[in-house]
Every structure is written in C-alpha cells, then in structure tokens.
Amino acid sequence: MSAALVTGASRGIGRGIALALAHAGFDVVVNFASNLAAAEEVAGEVEKAGAKAALVRADLADAADRARLVTEAYKAFGTIDLLVNNAGVAPAQRADILEAGEESFDRLIGINLKGPYFLTQQVALRMIEQGTPGRIVTISSMSAYTASVNRGDYCVTKAGLSMMTKLFAARLAEHGITVFEVRPGIIATDMTGPVKEKYDRLILDEGVTPIRRWGQPDDVGKAVVAVAQGLFPFSTGQVIDVDGGFHLRTL
C-alpha cells in the first residue's frame, strides 16, 4: 500500500485530505501540532477506512521537528509516496498592513512558508535516494492572488507557496517527482467559522463564486486524491483551483 504524509491533518482541510486518501487506499501519517484528541480521531477514521495511520506531533516551524517528522514517517511505513503540505495558520488578530507588527509576520512565515519549503526539500531528497516516483501537493489558498489588506502576512505566505510549487516542480521533474498546488477557495472549516455570516452573504446572495455553495474539506481531498492516483501523468507545477469558480472573476 502507498503511504502519504499529510501535515496539519487533525482538523479542517487536512482532515478531509487524510480521510479521502485513506478511502483511496493510502496509509497516512497524520501530522499535528497540538490537538492530540483530534489527531487520534482522524487516525481512527483512517483505520476504519481500511488503511493504517501513524500519529506524529511536529511543529513545522522548528527544524528539529521537521527532521523528526520525516524520520518517523519513514520508520512507520518505509516510504513516502505522497507529501501533502497542508499545515497553516491564520493571523491571531487581523490588522491593517499599515499597523501590523513583525511578530505575526514571522510566525506565519515560519509555519506557512518556511516549514513546507524545507520539509519538501527533506522529503524530496529521500524520494530521490530511494528512487520513489513520488508526488508532492501543496495546499495554498485563493489568498495567493487575492489581496486582503487586513491579513497581508497570510497572503504573502500563500503567494510564496505558489512559487515554491513552481521551483520544486522544475527541480524534481528529472527525478520523476511531480509537484502540484491545490488552491482552495472558501472552505467550511473552523478557520472560516468566525466569518461565516460574511461569506454566506457573498456566496449565496452576491454570487462571489459561480458555484453557489461553501466548499467542503472533502472537495479539496478529492483533488489531492486525483494527483495521488497519478491522473495527471504529463503535468507538473500545475495549479488546481478548488474554489467554486472564484478565479473566473466574472462580471
């Protein structure tokens, strides 16, 4: 059975991805930062789907934790066929870019961008060493190109992930490793819960997305499964929008 490492897999989009992969026949390394109970619940659901689960607590902003995560993932399953860079955080408090401080910026850069950048480097080197024709998927956001001036640090990290995808796609193609960016739109998670009323209005009343519904974590999971199953054999560096058509910018 193939194995996948999913970062930030204890809740939200990461949970949806982990469960979709399990149902598609992948064993899953369930990475989490702090919520052990939620991670254990996801692991239980993975095993109910007939796959194996391995729990690994690791802070992606910490180099030693990243190294340990990779080591424990390979120890659990002997291989990583798919890396899903999903873990990410929003600003603790939204602030206008003319007033925002460096502490939030540094935190988001460390977790959302530096973490996946160097985790991808480590996993790619292991894939090359083992001759694994692996796949790497990075979950970004429509914030990669949509300016939100009250959370500029978040937007900058997501834009950085887009370039990261291109860089690793170009570098790893010769080793048979393909790299994709899955770019979610408005997805129903605990992160979007505080702005639910706002987005209900934008989606249902104003039609900001041509497909007039909230996205679900499983929508993102299905896109990742398509990549994981090798359904894009002659593609790499591709952006897959999972946003209800938001990117169309309709008039």
Automatic annotation (TrEMBL):
Transmembrane segments: none annotated. It holds the Pfam family adh_short_C2. Keywords: Oxidoreductase. The keyword Metal-binding does not apply. Belongs to the short-chain dehydrogenases/reductases (SDR) family. PANTHER family: 3-OXOACYL-[ACYL-CARRIER-PROTEIN] REDUCTASE, SHORT-CHAIN DEHYDROGENASES/REDUCTASES FAMILY MEMBER. This is 3-ketoacyl-ACP reductase.
